[in-house]
Amino acid sequence: MKRFIIFCKGLILGFVGLAVPGLSASTIALEINVYYDLIDSISNIFKKFKKSALFLIFIMMGYFAGGFIGSVAMNTIYVTTPIIMILLVMGMVIGGIPNMAKDLKGGLKKPSCWIVMVLLSCLLIAFSFFLTAGKEITFDDMMIADYIVLFFVGVFTSATLVVPGVDFAVLLISLGYYSAFTSLVANFFDFSVFLHTITVLGIYLIGYGIGSFLLSKLIKIVINKYEDQTKYASFAFVLVAPAIIIRKGIFDNPDFSYTTSELVIGIILGLVSMISIMVLMHIISKRKKNKELGSINSKAIENNTNNEIVIENEAIEIEEKNSNIDSSEVKECLD
User: Are 157 and 208 a contacting pair, CB within 8 Å?
Assistant: First the structure.
């Protein structure tokens, strides 16, 4: 069941990463309580290989499945009825905000936390305004130099997995690779070009994996040293996400249009997704608390058991001493 939940979380991340320009998969990872597990698994892949590898296998299986669904959705639903996709994902984002807000209590009285949140929010909004689309790239007739560039594109775009707010779709658009990637993933099962598809994805993913590992190491150091500030920074990414989605999906979309029926469907799906995320977060939070309580209780039982053993050992020692004393007294009397 646990692995299935990890797979489902990966599915959400992959879908969001490709389906909606403007929303970062790592931002959603923060909302569905998988971000820190992801960072820990990537950075400790060699130290805790079995545990980390199992987690990453299931999360990436879901991620690729979600990416495939997202690329199909992007080429169909988002192009024809963008309002439905925008409201659906907006519901996901808003649904996770209350759960994240609960973790901010520790830094409420720290000015540094608020400064980080405000500055980061401003930077993210500015980033979304100044990042423009690059010249469109295709994967046809690729030379050796193109494959080398693709490797470094993988390293560069790995930031979208581990750095919240850096959107995979927007970054690909700025580099000119977005259309090429969505088409490549959408036509993954076209066996006439399957070898070429696997080669392109393989080289890209090698760069992506190396970049993710190095960045996750750096981020883990920052998280351990500045825990409260990191939580406020994470909240800033989520807080500005709706504004970025609206800007990228509506104002920067020249083909944006909708009908009344599409708007109604979008609102309904948005509410459903928002409630679903809120319920999911409540269940995950409850299970996490129960697990923590269980851990505390087991430690308390272990401590009590250890104390009882110590007391019992002390009682045995005292009894042995008393027995020795009695023996010596009897011996003295006999003498």
Answer: yes
203 pLDDT band (50/70/90 cuts)?
Answer: very high
The structure tokens listed for 274 are 């928002």
Residue among 94, 68, 79, 169 at smallest CA distance from 128: 169
pLDDT digits (tens, 9 = 90+) for 103-125: 788 888 888 889 988 998 888 77
CB 139 within 8 A of CB 188: no
Least confident of 56-65, 110-119, 224-233, 320-329: 320-329
Nearest CA to 146 out of 134, 135, 155, 138 is that of 138
Separation CA 82–CA 319 (nearest Å)? 82
d(CA 138, CA 141): 9
3-state per-residue secondary structure call for 95-108: HHHHHHHHHHHHHC
Given a contact cutoff of 8 angstroms between Cβ atoms, the answer to whether 277 and 31 are in contact is: yes
Q: What angle do CA 156, 210, 37 make, to 5 degrees?
A: 95
- pTM of this prediction exceeds 0.85: no
End-to-end CA distance of the chain: 76
Answer yes or no: are the C-beta atoms of 96 and 31 closer than 8 Å.
yes
